[in-house]
Amino acid sequence: MSELGSSPPQLPRKENRVINLPLFSRWESAIGDLTAALDITQEEVYFMEAKSIFVQVMRSIPSTSGVARRPLRLERIADAAATNRSDAVMVRKGIRAMELLSQLQEMHVIDKADQFSLLRDEVEQELQHLGSLKEGVITETQKLQEVYKTIRDHNVYLNGQLETYKSYLHNVRSQSEGTKRKQQKQQVLGPYKFTHQQLEKEGVIQKSNVPDNRRANIYFNFTSPLPGTFVISLHYKGRNRGLLELDLKLDDLLEMQKDNQDDLDLEYVQFNVPKVLALLNKRFARKKGW
C-alpha cells in the first residue's frame, strides 16, 4: 500500500467501469506441465508405473507358481494376473500391466524381441532388493526371539533365587527365636538317598572321578540335622561306613552362588552349586523351612 501511495479523488458514478485485475505472487511462477518441470518424460512415468505393478504382482504370486521362474516372462505374468478368478484387484493390475507393455513398445522403450529385458531386469533387481530386506527382518526377528528366550530363562533363574532367599529368611527367623526354639527337640530330616547315576542325570554331579565300573555301587545320602545345615555323605554298597562326609551351611552355598562359584568339590565328585541348592530346596524347604 505504501508503494501505491494515496488514493485518487472519487470519480462521478457515470464514469464507473468494470475492471478485471488478475492477482499473482511475485515469488511464484505457474507450472504448465508437471512432468516437464520435474524433467521426467512420459516414457519414464510409464516405465516406473509398469515396474511398480509387476513387482506388486510378483510379490502376490506364490513362489511355486510357474510364472515366478527366472528369467521372468512379463507377458505371462501380466496375463496370469489379468485372468485371476479370485482377486479383482489383481485383475486390474494385470490389465494395466498389459496396457503399459503395449505403450512402452510403441514408444520404443522396450522390445518384445528380447523379452522386454530392460524392464524385466529392473523388476528382478527390485525383487532381489526387497527379498534382502525380508531376510533382514527375519534375521532381526530371530535375534529378538533369542533375546526373549534369554529374558524368560533369566526370569526362571530369578524366581528360583527368590524361593531360595525366602527359605534363607525363614532360616534366619527360626534361628533368631532363641531359647524357645532351642528348647524344642530338633527333628532330623533325611537321609535321602541318591544314586550316582541319578545325580549325574539331574546335573548335580558335573564332574566325576569315580571309575565307570564302580559308579553303579556309589550312592549319596543327604541329611538336614538342623535348619540351614546339611550333611552329604558318599557311600559304597556293602560298606557300613561312608567314604566321606561333608557338612554344608545354607549361608555358604548362597554366598558361593552369589559369587558365581558353581563348583563344590567332594574329592571324588564335583557338584554344581545351583543344582545342589535346587535339590535341597526340593527335599527340605517345604518340610522344615531349612
TrEMBL record:
Instruction: List GO terms (cellular component aspect).
Output: cell cortex
The UniProt entry, under Pfam families, shows: RasGAP_C
Annotated GO molecular function terms are: GTPase activator activity
What is a biological process (GO) this protein takes part in?
negative regulation of Ras protein signal transduction
Using the record's annotation, list all stretches that form the RasGAP protein C-terminal domain: 91-207
Known PANTHER family for this protein? Answer: GTPASE-ACTIVATING PROTEIN (PTHR14149:SF17), RAS GTPASE-ACTIVATING PROTEIN WITH IQ MOTIF (PTHR14149)
User: What protein name applies here?
Assistant: Iq domain-containing containing gtpase activating
